[in-house]
Description:
This protein is an alpha+beta fold and 223 residues long. It contains 3 helices and 11 strands; from the N terminus they run αβββββββββααββ. It has helices at 4-19, 135-165, 172-193; strands at 23-25, 50-57, 61-71, 74-83, 88-93, 95-103, 110-117, 121-127, 130-132, 197-200, 203-207.
Amino acid sequence: xxxxxxxxxxxxxxxxxxxxxxxxxxxxxxxxxxxxxxxxxxxxxxxxxxxxxxxxxxxxxxxxxxxxxxxxxxxxxxxxxxxxxxxxxxxxxxxxxxxxxxxxxxxxxxxxxxxxxxxxxxxxxxxxxxxxxxxxxxxxxxxxxxxxxxxxxxxxxxxxxxxxxxxxxxxxxxxxxxxxxxxxxxxxxxxxxxxxxxxxxxxxxxxxxxxxxxxxxxxxxxx
Length: 223
């Protein structure tokens, strides 16, 4: 039968690590201006059901489509690379598409956006979001984990010693181990709380350029 101290530790560890990792949400950056990149734009037949989606970002980024697929084990999320580096042009069917944009050189800069493809040409000018976890937070969480594990090992050793000797422990050893463990946990929690994760959502300007005018007016003539 699993010892009670081991069960308690397995319940305490995920709670302690999650409780000491706060998040701070900051305002989104200013919406980017309308911009059309100087890249080749493919032709799409009017009756194909496809549209061109032009994507620019404030930093070079890769673009993935995100979709849900059904497997034998149930639904799962699939990510498919569709653009190795922005700016780029995607050819997508009309409708809403979830896109994941990840900066190439800055790991903490990424976003998830919904592209509303409702015109033959859609432009997404996007400023990537940011998720920054300071190094102090990782150190604090590590201390919390070590404190919980040390507390569990110490209490387990004290219980095992008491059982093997056939005598009841006076609680001194367990109390000392408990104080050390809780002290390490408290130190780690304070360090992690002082270094919260900073989250900033990205900002997207989505627009469709006006169709090119055809010379000749109502006569339908092209020059």
